[in-house]
Each structure stands twice: as structure tokens, then as C-alpha cells.
UniProtKB/TrEMBL annotation:
<feature type="region of interest" description="Disordered">
    <location>
        <begin position="36"/>
        <end position="65"/>
    </location>
</feature>
<dbReference type="InterPro" id="IPR051012">
    <property type="entry name" value="CellSynth/LPSAsmb/PSIAsmb"/>
</dbReference>
<dbReference type="Pfam" id="PF14559">
    <property type="entry name" value="TPR_19"/>
</dbReference>
<protein>
    <submittedName>
        <fullName>Tetratricopeptide repeat-containing protein</fullName>
    </submittedName>
</protein>
<keyword id="KW-0802">TPR repeat</keyword>
<dbReference type="InterPro" id="IPR011990">
    <property type="entry name" value="TPR-like_helical_dom_sf"/>
</dbReference>
<keyword id="KW-0677">Repeat</keyword>
<feature type="repeat" description="TPR">
    <location>
        <begin position="198"/>
        <end position="231"/>
    </location>
</feature>
<feature type="compositionally biased region" description="Polar residues">
    <location>
        <begin position="44"/>
        <end position="55"/>
    </location>
</feature>
<dbReference type="InterPro" id="IPR019734">
    <property type="entry name" value="TPR_rpt"/>
</dbReference>
């Protein structure tokens, strides 16, 4: 389900912080051009190499919060079993179990590493690294996770150029890099081929908010909701765009509607905060 896929990067307050840290870019769909104050050079192979790291290094970086002793013991047991496994099938089973444990702990980089060790599906691995990339609070770690995401999702696109879901995720790793224009171009390619693509319209709307193009953001989210009316995250960002565009009456009405139908505590907290400002 598409909603469950995109929610990984759109949970209320957390996403606001993530996307407002992206490079300031201007998306002009009508002229199919992208303007930036100073155009950044494309990443070359050497800069990609500098940003990359082994998955082991990514996984071993510190996390906030302490793992409960019982779960820590499970991890130790599963790691030992993985290392002592006598064949690939058993190794994959233990790695898959470790991926589940780490995902339940929200240690998504570690989870992605063990997905990589347990699966052969490039898209599944790429999506796991993309999820970790989406929530990475550390800039350097995010860069390295983006490289891992691109490593696998590019393979997916090479085999299936029409896979827009992989293309959108790949695009978003570039949008938050030193080469955002490449990512935005990829998103525009998707909406040119599939004008009502929910994920592409959502991300373009977010990027329009980030660059202060609130009218464009309104246009994106209204089009998205016309074809995907149940996307409450899009409603939230439409309301936010209306508020910032001076349409406060419409914004208040929409925020109130969201408040009355959502049970998401984080989303409701964000809605209440903005209603207090209006």
C-alpha cells in the first residue's frame, strides 16, 4: 500500500525538520527548469567514494538510547548463531531475525545491514537503506546511507526503468545531496510519465514548501488529494502551505478537519501547534 510506503518519511514533526534542512532549490515545472543560487557540481566518483562507507561502519555507529538487557542478549545470541552458521540458508535466517530486532528498536541502519545480508532482492535492500536514510539525524551518516540506497536502487532501475517507486526514492537521495537538481529532475520525469503519482507529487510539494513556493506546494497537494483523498499527510502539508501563503481561514478549516479525524498523536500535536498560531 502506497500510504504505508510514503509514511516512512512523512511522520508529522519529524519530516518538517528533515526537509527544511534540504538545499534551497526552486522547482519550476512549467518551464521544466530548476534554479539555484549557485549551481552545485555533480558528484563525481571520487566524492561518491568519500561519502561511502562499508555497511559495517554504518551499522556500528552509536545510537541514542539503551537496549534493554533481554533484547541485548537476544542480539548477542543471534549474532553468534549468524557467525557460526554452517550454510548460507541458516546465515540468512539469523540475519533476517537480527534485521527484525533492530527494526523494532528503530535502529534502521543496523536493520538495513542485516536485510542486505539476508536477502538477494535489490529493491528490498535498497528500500531498507532508504528507510534508514530517511530517518538519519546525522548528516554524515545520511550521506553514507544514501550511497548504499543508490547502490541497490540503481540496480533496480537498470533492470526495470519503469519502476517509479525506486526512481522516486533514488531521486530523494540526490535531493538532499550536493546535487539536488538531479533528484528534482528525476521527480519531474515521474510526474511527466504519471501525472497523478502520489509519492512524486507529495515529495515535490514538500520541496516547494522547503523553497518557499507555497502556491506551487498548494497546487501539488491539491492535485494529489484530488486523486488520493485519504492521504492525511498531504492534507497536513496543504494546510501548512495555505497558512504560509496567507490563506489562514482555509488553513484553520483544514487543520480542524485533520484534528477531528486523525488518531496520530504526533500529527495531532503538530496540528494543535499550528492552530494556536492562527
Amino acid at each position: 500500500m502506497l500510504k504505508s510506503r510514503i509514511i516512512l518519511i512523512v511522520i508529522a514533526i519529524a519530516l518538517i525538520a528533515v526537509f527544511f534542512s534540504l538545499p534551497k532549490v526552486v522547482v519550476d515545472n512549467e518551464n521544466e527548469s530548476i534554479d539555484k543560487g549557485s549551481e552545485a557540481p555533480a558528484l563525481d566518483s571520487s566524492s561518491e567514494q568519500q561519502a561511502s562507507t562499508s555497511a559495517d561502519e554504518i551499522m556500528s555507529e552509536s545510537h541514542s538510547g539503551k537496549i534493554p538487557e533481554e533484547i541485548r542478549q537476544d542480539i548477542v545470541r543471534l549474532r553468534n548463531s549468524y557467525e557460526l552458521a554452517k550454510n548460507q540458508e541458516n546465515s540468512a535466517i539469523f540475519a533476517d531475525s537480527l534485521a527484525s530486532v533492530y527494526r523494532n528498536l528503530n535502529r534502521l541502519d543496523s536493520a538495513a545491514k542485516y536485510v542486505e545480508l539476508s536477502k538477494e532482492d535489490n529493491e528490498l535492500i535498497g528500500n531498507a537503506y532508504y528507510e534508514a536514510f530517511s530517518f538519519a539525524a546525522d548528516v554524515d551518516k545520511a550521506k553514507r546511507l544514501a550511497v548504499k540506497t543508490r547502490e541497490y536502487l540503481q540496480k533496480v532501475l537498470n533492470g526495470d526503468p519503469a519502476n517509479n517507486s525506486a526512481k522516486i526514492k533514488l531521486a530523494m537521495t540526490y535531493v538532499s545531496s550536493d546535487n539536488p537538481m538531479q533528484g528534482i529532475s528525476m521527480l519531474l520525469e515521474v510526474v511527466e510519465e504519471d501525472p497523478n503519482n502520489e509519492e512524486a507529487l507529495f515529495n515535490l510539494g514538500i520541496l516547494s514548501i522547503q523553497s518557499g513556493q507555497y502556491s506551487k506546494a498548494i497546487e501539488r497537494f491539491e492535485k494529489l488529494l484530488l486523486h488520493h483523498p485519504d492521504n492525511i499527510q498531504a492534507e497536513f502539508y496543504l494546510a501548512l502551505s495555505l497558512m504560509n501563503n496567507g490563506q489562514k481561514v482555509k488553513a484553520r478549516k483544514l487543520f480542524t478537519e485533520i484534528k477531528n479525524k486523525s488518531n496520530d498523536e504526533q500529527l495531532l500535536a503538530a496540528v494543535e501547534s499550528y492552530l494556536n498560531e492562527l
